[in-house]
Amino acid sequence: MKTGTRPAKVAAGVYRVVRGTGKSNVYLVRSGSSWVLIDAGWAHQGAVIKSSAEMVFGADTPPAAILLTHLHPDHAGSAAELARAWTVPVYVHPDELPPPGGKLAYTDPLGRVIEPFARFLPAGEFGACLRIAVAFDPGAGVPGLPDWQCIPTPGHTPGHASYFRPADGVLITGDALLTVNARSLWGALPGQHQVSGPPRISTWDWAAATRSIGRLADLEPQVLAPGHGTPMTGATTPAAVRAFSDRLAAGPAAAGLLRPVDYGSRIRYRRPPAMYARLQWLGPPIVAAGLGPRNVIVLEVPGRNTGDIHRTTLVRADCDGGHYLVALAGESEWVRNVRAAGGRVVIGPRHRHAAQLVEVPPQQRAPVIRAYLQRSGRQPGSKIAASEARHYFGVNADPTLEDLSEIAPYYPVFQIVGDAPRPTER
């Protein structure tokens, strides 16, 4: 018998098992004296999932039911195997099943490519799941989970469903909402932790998927348990989901022009939109002409590889009598260049002078980030401060210092300290 891995506790009574290629998440959810399995990973993972469940609930304790967020092979692959082993039903949202006598439609871009060849492929365990899955009535509650709600989230598939526990805000999203960017090779690498949507190539209706993400953001989840990626918890989770939803709803062309850029993801570097990056060259001459706000400066620093001078427009934050620069994008080019230069820079264009930048330790950054949000006399919780808190830092409209301390490691901060000392002559 295959030995499972010990499930990781996500929230009270909710445990996560990661299985198979693509790291699909399987959730074991306790409710009262029974429990339910949500999603079943890839095919041939049944023995491992069953063994993992026994580590939590004990041997000979089958679930009340198997619930699927949607009928894709990486989430339903072992459902039939487990249903046979436990003698329990497999439930899906009614819109996920094909009509009587019909077949599962391949309506996403990837599906349309493989559909002509699908009839030549063996049905296997996934095909067995399609034959035994039955619909449940979302309005009558979630089978086996009376304290949970079914949240219809069509888009990735026609009948995709998420599951929400209102008592503590735990949200299991399947592929409606992820914490890895499955549409980017960089975003899918280990350690990249950000709110993201489903991959477009395997999504049935992108507009519907966007609307579903907005519906999930309205729930203000405290725990985001996705189908792929590490669960996201903490006070900043609702704001991170809302910021991502707002960015999708506004569309890519608006980022940096009609609305703030979304820098709220919990990753080392948050790449700005291409259009925003292309327009950055306009910043220095505009500021040099005296047309920018007085707290906007131009940072000049030599490139760490070429030695050529790089000019970047940044907003200065004033905190407790000191002047600071906050790196909204994280480990961006200017941050790495400043470190390589030992902090020796030139600041202008007004009163252009040499200066020394000293990096602030993460545990001391929260007051500076708050000062950044409240710069130029902005009131805490005001519309513009709330928008920047949500989009720039992925926190709520009026964050506490504790909220900001949680995200501070992802935002390098430098203090501007007078004139830069000259390098020692050798």
Descriptive key words:
six-stranded antiparallel barrel; Pnp Oxidase, Chain A; alpha+beta; 2 domains; elongated; seven-stranded mixed beta sheet; disordered C terminus; 426 residues; Metallo-beta-lactamase, Chain A; 18 strands; 27% helix; 13 helices
What do you see in this structure?
With 426 residues, the protein is an alpha+beta fold. The chain folds into two domains: 8-233, 4-Layer Sandwich (Metallo-beta-lactamase, Chain A), CATH 3.60.15; 274-417, Pnp Oxidase, Chain A (Roll). It is built from 13 helices and 18 strands. It has helices at residues 46-57, 73-76, 79-86, 109-118, 124-132, 206-218, 237-250, 274-278, 283-288, 333-340, 366-373, 383-393, 401-407, and strands spanning 8-11, 14-19, 24-31, 34-38, 65-67, 90-92, 134-135, 149-152, 161-165, 170-174, 223-226, 232-233, 296-302, 309-319, 322-326, 344-348, 353-359, 413-417. The strands form three sheets. The protein has a seven-stranded mixed beta sheet with strand order 1-2-3-4-5-6-7. Strand 11 (223-226) and strand 12 form a beta hairpin. Helix 6 packs antiparallel against helix 7 (237-250) and helix 11 packs across helix 13. The termini are far apart.
